[in-house]
Amino acid sequence: TRGAVATGDGEDVTDLAHAGVWGLVRVAQTENPGRIVLVDRDTDTLDPRHVSPDVPQAAVRGTTVLTPQLARSTAKDTQTPPRWDGGTVLVTGATGALGGFLARHLVTRHDARHLLLLSRRGIDAPGARELHDELTALGADVTFAACDAADRDALTAVLAGIPDDRPLTAVVHTAGVLDDTVLTDLTPQRLAKVLQPKVDAAWNLHELTKDRDLTAFVLYSSIAGLIGNAGQANYAAGNTFLDALAQHRRAHGLPATSLAWGLWAEASTISGGLDETDLRRLARLGLLPLSSDDAMDLFDAAPTTGEAVLAVTRLDTAVLRRQADRLPAVLRALAPTAPRRTAAAAGTGSGGEGGPSLAERLGALPEEQRTEVLTDLVRTQVAAVLGHADQGAVDAERAFQEMGFDSLTAVELRNQLNAATGLRLPSTLVFDYPNPAALAAYLRRQITVEEVSAATPVLSDLDRLKDSIQSVAAADREALQQITGRLRELLDLADATAGESGADDDRDLDTATDEELFALLDDLD
């Protein structure tokens, strides 16, 4: 893209249409890890040196490559929060859970007196009359309007009806719907269903109010657009457009804040459709639910940061650190980690930092045990995706569909197995191979195993031991003596196991010098 993202304060988003593409492609990256690089440029051409699979998302400005990262934001003394008690405050999606929380908050916390609450059904929407009566009893003048803000003519008529003695002073756009599916199943109709209440409505609100004297223009976005949550390509696209619109307005001197909400504890249009599997998936990303009270406190704090776009969420940084190498690009700065050893060939997924790869571990096993190890690997990952405590709850012969797998959990399992094996697996795994046993057999056919002797892993350990001993020898002679004693015990054990007498060895270990012991280790190379 070109000009679809802003990289700093005051930079304009000149291509709003493609801003949504960033959200959609972020989801494509999540669903197809390691295959897509997303770059925004500021020139007609792109230097290939600025594209790297190790940097999945970047903005190139001149010769500088910038990456999107979340960072903690704090209040600034120079920022003044908006006033909500002056004129009329317009709230879209007002009969949804988030709109209702906000309306109550504006009245009780900020003494808002004039609310114009929009929803498609107006006062006839479920809960609307109760909300109207509640807010009226608190002293507010409340008007419900049956208006789809995505309908420009209808919105124009509603805005024209605002009295001159209480002019429009603030807009909060909370409306939104979900229609989750993996990208390969996304149709134009499902895309439009989600984009219209987000994108069309936000653009209409911007266009029809940009000449009014507003103190606040707040867009309810979602962190899904920043992290590229699997199965939410349409929703992510809509929300990255809102983020870009806020930056565009700021660049033109207009008030705007886009709040990319994380998970809410209370059910809402956003969180109400999430099942237990969805919640576990988000928890594995370190996302913790916000109570409505905490959310409203953060709503109040957001304008004082001076930022156009804010991710408003609770994060479990310990969870982030445990899986830093699998995090969405935007979260990685919050969980720094040492570079991970990358797989050099198919089937070389890492077995842990400094440990043998999966292919190496399989190579040291007889064939029947290789299949068993891979079956256990699949069962372990299935258990993690479905939220079971361990693999014991997963029957290797039970069909994935009977376990409750759908297109979203299938993508998550594929991503977990990609990381564990180093392979690039299709997202249709659970549909192509009916159960964990069949999937393990498929993995065995895909992983190239180099036959090795049983001594190979031991020799690898000895190589690492040699390096460690040399480091200790230079720093701590006393520790070296302790290590030397243990090495003599190990060599005696090796001789005894082989039926040889350590006492008859012409290089008597009891009298061997340190240099002679090192020479013995060298002989094992």
From TrEMBL:
Keywords: Multifunctional enzyme, Phosphopantetheine, Phosphoprotein, Transferase. GO terms for biological process: antibiotic biosynthetic process; fatty acid biosynthetic process. Residues 372-447 form the Carrier domain. One of its GO terms (molecular function) is fatty acid synthase activity. It holds the Pfam family PP-binding. SMART domains: PKS_KR, PKS_PP, PKS_PP_betabranch. The keyword Transferase applies. The keyword Metal-binding does not apply. This is SDR family NAD(P)-dependent oxidoreductase. It comes from Streptomyces griseicoloratus.
